[in-house]
């Protein structure tokens, strides 16, 4: 039952639920609190008196309507039973016997942290839509009578399960917190500091709201923070890495977002624990559970109804999570561990969101099966646990001598200090420490690089003597986003590297930009012009006259070259650009460049037809090549309109081969003994103008020929003309503009449209038919994996394989066969708001439709239904309409045969 999103059992009492727990020998589970004392717990925290503060909700997952707010700030919500509660065990029996509603009338509260100003009797910091609040008891009656906004309003509108949470007070006096998936929030502190967060991030602020700053960037939906005894900060995260040790200022992988120029920081967990719903995290060390439990981590898994378990090992200072058998399992699939805390008694406390449904967009928000009333907090006790809390010491100032220590932990602590307190004078010492660091100690080396980067951000840092000799100086400069770094890269960077050119163009002043264009224009490199144009685009500026003049000259030159044969190939029929070079996998495992008739650079690529002819050559005794592609829809007989053939001088066909109706290349061999020495050539024929399964590709000619490489060079020239056409779209002379029009990037694929009632009924019928076929057939999971790799991995990732454009799919079997059929055949039925379709209209009337993948600077990056990325400068945007439609085509599942669909489902149900 625990492998279904909607649990099929009925709720149990707390006592009955507890009977189904399984924990390691020596541990016992006690019910600390349950309904009606609390409802749905989300976050917990202990105060200095040993009391447990809990954020409890009934409203979730709906934000209360504004009409119920008591004022514009949302101070109270009419009729809400959401509250911050204080639970106390007054008689020491391990069960809460006293509850106080410290702050009531809230709106999905999370992130509770006990803390109060000296002049107040009690208080806490917590999130309640739409603000981070300070609630305080000023008169000593034990109830909050002061409600003060620290930060807000912040984002909650897109996703109420991805708000600010997991507040933890560090020994440095900062409050550390997570910012969840999909929402965008703008912070303003009392000292004028600001912070803009979009989707997953970890940040920190002063308890009085006097300052706010980022801690790390990236991740998808972090929920849960903890420290080890060395003050290393760890997070749990849904959809990316279950456990991450977070370095201040570091960037971590997210849904298709770029890194910060320094590269992504190291990750420590290579497994997913079979789920994307990981929340609540505890680090066990300091002897609290004995030597055998030193350096272990526990992690709440609210999808699989388990508390996962990892042992942490270190390479130098770099941690690795090693998966162990689960710490706690439950026979009741309603068990939903959403937060973990190690109490002052060294017992493990588990917030149980007890529910039939935990998924947010996996099922409709208004699904009647959602439970609103029940919630539990469990206390897991180790029989011989220490009665002494582990001790942590606040960070100490570093000295340059620490950077030269033989102890990597001391070096790392010093690097962390100088990252937070940059000092130009210690940059050489940091550079020497980086050169001396063990390469396999990834956390140490990245921390040292962060210290160098942060030091280089100081005014005048790039003017230091010998700075150009620092290790990795070019990469470090790319991570410094200011004019000084741009000037340094112009003088000392490799101007053949695209990222260097782009950085100088984006961050350099006008003088630096002019020098850059003058310096690289003579090379004639198209990649250089494209990189500079992109950098300017991201800073929100139009190309300056020198760049436009350069682009015009390049266009004239390349248009003359374009008239020449494509590296010896000749194109007949169709469009000049109906063929392209792309990477494809071969049956023997190699991935190689393939000359393909599926050119994604043009609209309706599969409908394009044409013939590509090789140069004439003397026939050898034997020739071989590899071929992939299709001959019409898999459900239909082969149409034989796509093929490769050998033609002699008389125009007679001597050999013919058809594509294997597969995206994976297969080998073809022709015996040409009777033709040996004759003048012949290869023709690649795409005669199928169908909308799908209408392409072929060829590669790996033997005897070895340079045809594919030659064609690739010709296509590079064609792609370069696309760039020039885009840069000069509105500035080139009319005659040149007309000649370049054919090379302009293709418009985005048409957006999917909302499904009407008749289409929904047809989809329901198809879903039912595919469910019945799955029940009647035997799926081939191995073939299903190939179907996923071919059709799904371009957007989705499972166990680290595939792309993170769409949602990560680890643990997807929990959705069940019926829900998977819905997701594949009717993807807009329950689409996460993050993946809603954007329809962007530009000033010149063009429209671009797709999923908003990212916003580098002043550019919107949209991915359309064909997986193609389109860059739209924000300065050109007139309107951005967002609709609850997925970019995944509604007919995607229908283009798979019934057996392919069954195989795909069979494999997904193993994940």
What features would you describe in this structure?
The chain has 911 residues and is of the alpha+beta class. The strands form 11 sheets. Strands 28, 31, 32, 34, 35 and 37 form a 6-stranded antiparallel sheet that branches. Strands 1-24-23-22-21 form a 5-stranded antiparallel sheet. The protein has a 5-stranded mixed sheet with strand order 11-12-15-16-20, with no helix packed on it. Strand 42 (847-854) and strand 43 form a beta hairpin.
The shape is globular
Which stretches of 5+ consecutive residues score pLDDT under 50?
Answer: none
Biggest sheet: strands, sense, closure? 6 strands, antiparallel
Number of helices: 16
Global mean pLDDT:
89
The separation of the N and C termini measures 16 Å
Beta fraction = 25-35%
Q: Classify the oligomer.
A: single chain
Query: How many E-type strands?
Result: 45
What class would the helix/strand composition place it in? alpha+beta
Give the C-alpha Rg: 31 Å
**Percentage of residues in helical conformation:** 10-25%
SSE topology:
Blueprint: H1 14-18, E1 21-22, E2 27-34, E3 40-46, E4 52-57, E5 83-88, E6 98-103, E7 110-114, E8 122-128, E9 131-137, E10 146-151, E11 164-169, E12 175-179, E13 184-188, E14 194-198, E15 201-205, E16 212-218, E17 221-227, E18 233-238, E19 243-246, E20 251-252, E21 278-284, E22 296-301, E23 306-315, E24 318-330, E25 337-342, E26 348-352, E27 376-382, H2 408-420, H3 427-436, H4 442-456, H5 473-478, H6 483-492, H7 498-507, H8 510-521, H9 526-539, H10 545-562, E28 570-572, E29 580-585, E30 591-596, E31 610-613, E32 617-618, E33 622-629, E34 642-648, E35 653-657, E36 662-671, E37 679-686, E38 696-702, H11 707-727, H12 734-740, H13 757-776, H14 781-791, E39 797-798, E40 801-802, H15 816-825, E41 836-842, E42 847-854, E43 859-863, E44 869-873, E45 877-886, H16 898-908
Parallel strand pairs: 16-20
Antiparallel strand pairs: 1-24, 2-27, 3-4, 4-5, 5-6, 7-8, 8-9, 9-10, 11-12, 12-15, 13-14, 15-16, 17-18, 18-19, 21-22, 22-23, 23-24, 25-26, 26-27, 28-31, 29-30, 30-38, 31-37, 32-37, 33-36, 33-38, 34-35, 34-37, 39-40, 41-42, 41-45, 42-43, 43-44
Helix pairs in contact: 2-4, 3-4, 6-7, 7-9, 9-10, 9-11, 10-11, 13-15, 14-16
């Amino acid at each position: 039952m625990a492998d279904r999103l909607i649990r099929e059992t009925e709720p149990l009492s707390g006592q009955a639920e507890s009977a189904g727990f399984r924990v390691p020998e020596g541990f016992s589970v006690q019910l600390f609190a349950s309904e009606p004392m609390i409802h749905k717990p989300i976050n917990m925290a202990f105060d200095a008196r040993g009391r447990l503060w809990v954020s409890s909700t009934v409203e979730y997952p709906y934000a209360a309507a504004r009409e119920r707010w008591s004022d514009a700030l949302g101070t109270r919500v009419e009729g809400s039973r959401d509250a911050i509660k204080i639970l106390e065990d007054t008689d020491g029996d391990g069960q809460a016997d006293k509850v106080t509603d410290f702050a009531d009338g809230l709106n999905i509260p999370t992130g509770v942290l006990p803390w109060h100003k000296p002049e107040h009797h009690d208080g806490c910091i917590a999130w309640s839509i739409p603000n981070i609040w300070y609630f305080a008891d000023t008169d000593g009656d034990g109830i909050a009578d002061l409600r003060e906004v620290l930060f807000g309003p912040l984002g909650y509108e897109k996703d109420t399960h991805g708000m600010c949470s997991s507040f933890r007070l560090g020994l440095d006096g900062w409050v550390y917190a997570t910012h969840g998936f999909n929402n965008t929030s703008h912070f303003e502190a009392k000292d004028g500091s600001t912070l803009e967060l979009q989707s997953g991030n970890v940040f920190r602020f002063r308890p009085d709201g006097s300052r706010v700053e980022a801690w790390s960037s990236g991740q998808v939906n972090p929920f849960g923070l903890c420290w080890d005894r060395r003050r290393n900060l760890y997070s749990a995260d849904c959809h990316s890495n279950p456990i991450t040790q977070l370095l201040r200022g570091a960037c971590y992988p997210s849904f298709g977002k770029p890194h910060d120029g320094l590269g992504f920081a190291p990750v420590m967990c290579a497994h997913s624990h079979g789920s994307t719903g990981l929340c609540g995290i505890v680090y066990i060390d300091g002897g609290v559970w004995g030597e055998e439990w030193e350096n272990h981590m526990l992690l709440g898994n609210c999808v699989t109804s388990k508390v996962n378990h990892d042992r942490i090992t270190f390479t130098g200072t770099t941690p690795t999570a090693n998966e162990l058998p689960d710490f706690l399992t439950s026979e009741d699939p309603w068990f939903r561990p959403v937060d973990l805390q190690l109490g002052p008694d060294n017992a493990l406390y588990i917030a149980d969101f007890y529910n039939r449904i935990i998924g947010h967009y996996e099922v409709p928000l208004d699904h009647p099966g959602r439970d609103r009333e029940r919630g539990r907090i469990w206390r897991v006790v180790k029989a011989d646990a220490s009665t002494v809390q582990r001790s942590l010491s606040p960070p100490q100032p570093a000295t340059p001598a620490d950077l030269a220590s033989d102890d990597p932990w001391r070096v790392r602590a010093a690097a962390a200090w100088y990252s937070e307190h940059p000092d130009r004078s210690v940059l050489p010492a940091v550079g020497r420490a980086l050169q001396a660091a063990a390469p396999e100690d990834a956390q140490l080396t990245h921390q040292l690089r962060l210290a160098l980067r942060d030091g280089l951000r100081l005014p005048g840092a790039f003017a230091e003597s010998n700075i150009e000799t620092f290790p990795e100086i070019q990469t470090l400069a790319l991570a410094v986003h200011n004019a000084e770094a741009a000037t340094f890269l112009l003088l000392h960077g490799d101007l053949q590297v695209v990222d260097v050119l782009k950085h100088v163009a984006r961050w350099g002043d006008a003088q630096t930009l002019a020098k850059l264009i003058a310096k690289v224009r003579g090379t004639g490199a198209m990649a250089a012009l494209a990189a500079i144009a992109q950098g300017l685009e991201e800073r929100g500026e139009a190309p300056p006259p020198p760049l436009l003049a350069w682009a015009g000259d390049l266009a004239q030159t390349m248009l003359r070259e374009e008239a020449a044969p494509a590296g010896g190939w000749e194109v007949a029929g169709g469009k000049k650009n109906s063929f392209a070079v792309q990477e494809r996998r071969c049956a023997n495992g190699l991935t190689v460049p393939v000359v393909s008739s599926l050119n994604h650079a043009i609209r309706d690529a599969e409908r394009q037809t044409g013939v590509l002819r090789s140069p004439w050559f003397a026939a050898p005794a034997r020739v071989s090549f590899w071929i992939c592609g299709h001959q019409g829809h898999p459900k239909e007989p082969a149409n034989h309109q796509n093929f490769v053939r050998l033609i002699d001088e008389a125009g007679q066909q001597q050999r013919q081969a058809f594509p294997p109706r597969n995206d994976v290349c297969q080998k073809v061999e022709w015996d040409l003994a009777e033709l040996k020495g004759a003048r012949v050539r290869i023709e690649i024929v795409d005669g199928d103008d169908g909308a799908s399964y209408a392409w072929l590709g060829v590669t790996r000619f033997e005897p070895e020929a340079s045809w594919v490489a030659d064609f690739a060079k010709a296509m590079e020239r064609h792609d370069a003309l696309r760039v020039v056409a885009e840069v000069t779209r509105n500035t080139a002379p009319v005659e040149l503009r007309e000649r370049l029009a054919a090379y302009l990037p293709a418009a985005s694929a048409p957006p999917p449209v909302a499904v009407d009632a008749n289409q929904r009924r047809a989809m329901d019928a198809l879903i039912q038919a595919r469910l019945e076929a799955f029940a009647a057939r035997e799926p081939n999971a191995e073939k299903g994996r190939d179907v996923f790799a071919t059709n799904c991995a371009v957007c989705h990732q499972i166990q680290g394989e595939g792309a993170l454009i769409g949602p990560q799919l680890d643990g997807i079997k929990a959705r069940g066969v019926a829900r998977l059929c819905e997701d594949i055949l009717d993807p807009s039925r329950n689409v996460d708001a993050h993946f809603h379709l954007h329809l962007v209209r530009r000033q010149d009337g063009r429209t671009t439709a797709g999923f908003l993948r990212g916003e580098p600077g002043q550019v919107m990056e949209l991915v359309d239904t064909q997986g193609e990325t389109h860059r739209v400068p924000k300065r050109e945007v007139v309107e951005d309409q967002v609709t609850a439609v997925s970019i995944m085509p509604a007919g995607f599942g229908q283009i798979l045969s019934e057996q392919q669909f069954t195989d795909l489902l069979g494999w997904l149900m193993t994940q």
